């Protein structure tokens, strides 16, 4: 142990009275405190999960586990290989446990909090004895101001960890930062879009303008359709005759408050009782209001749009599914036949066989294709968040609940399809509630007093043998039979060897276009090796291998006769090739950035894309490292 900051940390731990023989953190949240902590960080957890999963996939099977904490070191999410995750749970490295120095002594996450930079420590550099068998690599996740808002950590046994492990964690933390900033920018754009719709969105929203007396001055065609009157009749009404609560709304606006995206009761000629309403004052000056503009949106359409924003909609169709294998073509044909049914579908298949691709394709082939497609990974959402994520909650349902409550995934999917991936990971109490949705077609929000009917097609997916899980008591038998009405089994890639060449061609073109690289010629000998490989990771593994080949522009060094060789070569490919194991992380990063900038002849846009970071981040790094190119 030669690093001064580690010695200083050990000294602080000793002065604080931290016992090196403890096994658990001195501070662990449980019950409502944990629930509130996870709810406060819901968006952070959901944003970070895909990147945690991506980094974990590189080391899967090598006894690693990933941890996400918030800004004080409180664990928000943990997952990894079964053996090591069991050891971590035995040491109560679970959501709610704090990893700061005072709570558990010196570790990579505590040092990130004190040193404000990426850290990797190993063995006895940890303060408590229970962690001496591990190496931890952690990096801060910062907001746009540079403030630490969380930490990403990857832990494994000392013998399995390399210098580049920390590089992977740093890259993932940068990606999370970029996605959080992108989400923030998108939210700002969404708000601006709603204001623009006040004037231009006459097709999708009903727009009514009134004077201060409540007389209707103008109404667009959509507004007439929504209320069911012709223009002449419509203008005979006062606005409060069509809108409940009009006077309280205007009173609030006159006091400087906003009234946007609220569900209101209306009186229409049509069988409509509720619309979503935003009201905007038209001002002559900052103090004088001359008119009001009322923008009405159908509640179901609003949910549909929200669903598309949240899930990016269903983009895959059967036309985009690649395969000529007879068994696979029969699977596609069967999927098309059941697409228009309202019965539940259970898609089974090994990891990486394309279960969500089929779910999206079925949705887009059905009569629900114009309605929302909402995908939910049941294994990615912490147990304490899954109910509010699926069913939503009312305002005031719990501490930290946002004003106006929150729509759940089932409500957003109303009229369309909800895809429940990794259904085998759903907690038993939620299985009961899902069974009720299937049988009765109604949901109840957390804190809600009434039930809400929903019209949803449910497609579930699993890589587990659910029948076996039922026999073990891990999954409800009645729910299994309710989900397995239309079973769909996707064949693994090893049973579709005649499709491998076409898939490689597709992934090669797609990857080369995305990375701006040349295609790599696959020899017949190597292609035969690919056909004979067993592909435990299926299509996802094949796509990752093609990306590796494109990046390295090389086929050599990969022995496909060994089941473990693909995982090994992927780890090697992440090495920055700095040629000196003693280089610090900053020196390695500087060398790699310089190499990429030189490759693209100083083109910052192309270099940032290749490095998978934003241009502003690259400019900051160039300035920080004084890179000349």
Automatic annotation (TrEMBL):
The keyword Nucleotidyltransferase does not apply. Residues 321-551 form the Sigma-54 factor interaction domain. Pfam families: AAA_lid_14, HTH_8, PAS_9, Sigma54_activat. GO terms for biological process: regulation of DNA-templated transcription. Keywords: ATP-binding, DNA-binding, Nucleotide-binding, Transcription, Transcription regulation. Residues 192-234 form the PAS domain. One of its GO terms (molecular function) is sequence-specific DNA binding. SMART domains: AAA (SM00382), PAS (SM00091). This is PAS domain S-box-containing protein. InterPro entries: AAA+_ATPase (IPR003593), AAA_lid_NorR (IPR058031), GAF-like_dom_sf (IPR029016), Homeodomain-like_sf (IPR009057), HTH_Fis (IPR002197), P-loop_NTPase (IPR027417), PAS (IPR000014), PAS-like_dom_sf (IPR035965). The keyword Ligase does not apply.
